[in-house]
Amino acid sequence: MVTITPSIVVVSAIILLALVFFATEPVPVDVTALGVMVTLMLAQPASGWLVSAGLLAEPILLFDPAQYPQQALSGFSSTATLTVLAMFILSDGVQRTGIVQMLGAKISSFTGDSENRQLGATIGLVAPISGFINNTAAVAILLPMVTDLAERGGTSPSKLLLPLSYASMFGGMLTLIGTSTNILASDLSGRLIGRSFTMFEFTELGLVVGVVGTVYLLTVGRWLTPERIKPERDLTEEFEMADYLTEVTVRADSPLVGQQIQRALGETDFDFDLIQLIRDGQVFLEPLGPKEIQAGDVFALRTDRDTLVELIDVEGLDLVPNVTVDEEELEAGQSGQNLVELVVAPGSSLVGESLASSSFRQRYDATVLALRRGGELIRRRMDNISLRVGDTLLVQATTESIERLDDNRNFIVAQEIEQHHYREEKIPVAIGIVAVVVALAALDVVPIVVSALAGSLAMVATNCLRPPELYDAVQWDVVFLLAGVIPLGIAMENSGAAALLAEFVVLTGDYLPLVGVLGVFYLVTALLTNVVSNNASVVLMIPVAVEAAQTLGANAFAFILAVTFAASTAFMTPVGYQTNLFVYGPGGYRFTDYLRVGAPMQLLFAAVTTVGIAAIWGLTPPA
């Protein structure tokens, strides 16, 4: 029986605090992870001072004294962290060739208006792609295609986007490189039991899980998935903007005549946005600030009825009669696209900022007409609302501004943009590089971290990626998250906290068969990963799983696999996985939708995965 020591108490307190921060996100999860790392680093020397002062009976040992602070900083030099970093670069190299977008464009030719074919094509495309490029990137690339697919086929995007996210998750379980979670779990497995994952270690089970998930999403899941957004071809109808868009004309006696727009209308207490200026039949979009207002100018405005009455009275404006400001009207400014949905991406610099504090209009030469947060639509007084990951903005801008927004990593444009800057001539090269990386690792010629880093260098050497693009390719929040949580796993092992938690789980062995205990680990990890980061779940649960398996005399590798698979099945909440947040706004979902569709799928996967692991790898240690 494990004795509770000060080291266990300290680690347990840090874990509990970290879980609260991961779940509530008062700061980004990567910042929380770095805070955990720093706290662990400070706890050990601080305990020595307390022992010297007679305030503590024994020092707190979270890391090997001979390897302190190297163990505390090991997350930055971990092969898992470096492999994930390299995989982001490889994924971006493939993405910039346009191959995924081309595949997406081809499927619309045979899906038509059949929701079944659209759903099948969506799942059939994203799942295998997610096995070889980062599944978060796969969803970001395919989201505009799926949204347009729904629009052209007269299908609600809500019926396709949640399956897109779910399929990317179980598709990521086809290979070692499908998710950062797999790579981290492999590294932990190698350190704890001396056995890492091979490239196709769990492909057999991944295929079984994928087939089960696909069948579920095409049948029960399709029935459970709600149609939150009605099939509309007009974005202004989708965002219910009819009562918030109007046109007014400037009277000859208006006090605005002769003033610059930015001075006359830029600083006002009225809640409105000037969307476009129509003068002598010509339409002008942002930037409008320097233009001088003339009598007869027509302004298209975003405002509510009460504000409009006040604005007309004070500023000398007249309502333009018999005009409907819809998508066609807002797209009249230029030949290209002027109206799109923008999704705030993970790691965006706008997270925690508002439209006002980020100077959104001035920075991007774009006007936000509405904000959708899940099922909530906000169309007034949006300027001071703090933005979150997954928020969807209805934006009007010039074609050039929208193209720049499409290239901006702060956003995902939810419609396909007609751009021709993909490096299509590099498709064979980029695919070849990824194939070589996979082959070298699969044949055990070199470790995956070596082949992945070499592949990243090859992407630059062959001009699939340009040197400055390397830094944009990496999701640095994930890298810092990994670097921050890896030392927590080491501290759990060294302090005895993992062994203590394992004792509680082992008690279930008195009432359940070994496969039942494996199922318990799967379910506990699945519940945890729906609330906190999947990478944090793996770091917390794998040491406990290994301790429990060794205590029960079971196959520790099987228990590690159960945790790994469970950590990538955050189906029940929008916050459990980044791809769920991607589709939260564009799908108009409610929090409970994830529970309704995801909970049965979570239980189904628990049964299939547990039985599959027992059948393929066995539950007793290999001879």
From TrEMBL:
The keyword Transmembrane helix applies. GO terms for cellular component: plasma membrane. Pfam families: CitMHS (PF03600), TrkA_C (PF02080). Keywords: Membrane, Repeat, Transmembrane, Transmembrane helix, Transport. GO terms for biological process: potassium ion transport. The chain crosses the membrane at residues 6-24, 31-52, 72-90, 160-185, 205-224, 429-453, 473-492, 504-525, 556-577, 597-619. This is Di-and tricarboxylate transporter. It comes from Halogeometricum rufum.
